[in-house]
Amino acid sequence: MIRSGVILAALLWAGQAAAHDFERCEKPEIAAVLEALTAAEKIALRAAVSIGDTPEFALWFGAWSKENGATVRSSFKAIHAAIRDNDLKVVCANVGEDDCNASMYANVFRHDAYAINLCPSFFGMPEIHAHSNTSAIMENGTRAGTIIHEVSHFDVVAGTDDLCYTRTDCAAMALTRSLVRNADSYQYFAEDVAALPRD
To answer: Is Phosphoprotein one of the keywords UniProt gives this record (predicted)?
Structure first.
């Protein structure tokens, strides 16, 4: 499908230039997305190097094993590389467009790599570090975390699924099963690790 009204935006990341296509996005929306992308790249990398037998891993992915740790580390590296190295196509969709509904933050089609539909609710999500991760407002995460969630779905990245949503439900599910293929688990782990003090 061909869409009109493409706006190109350039963003420099660690010396590399990544140009992103924005469709139907206003200037404030573009600014919010660029900020979220910058944060998502940083926290995905921090998450990748923080994989271990930790309380955070168990909370979001379930029981630790070397195999589970390797899967999650590899997925975070792929998420980080996808955000850093690829030109993303971001569509600011209205409710009723591009599979957006009133309760949805964003969506992707797993075979259509690097195209992300952002629904209106996305722009009401908190920024990373704006609130404590235990605050009720963080139940569905942040804009940066949502970018990680959506990028993880692409088959060429991590091929994750949606096994649960919300911090409450995913933490409960991780008590009884592995969630190394759950998109929200990557989101919440990255947000929590980003909030931890650095050694």
So the answer is: no
Dihedral pair phi/psi, residue 141, rounded to 5° = 85, -160
What is the enclosing helix (H) or strand (E) of 117? strand 115-118
84 in Cβ contact with 14 (< 8 Å): yes
Please give the CATH topology (third level) of the domain spanning 21-195: Collagenase (Catalytic Domain) (3.40.390)
Distance in angstroms (rounded) separating the CA atoms of residues 48 and 97: 34
pTM: 0.89
Q: Crossing angle of helices 183-195/27-48, nearest 10°? A: 80
pLDDT tens, residue by residue, 17-67: 457 899 999 999 999 999 999 999 999 999 999 999 999 999 999 999 999
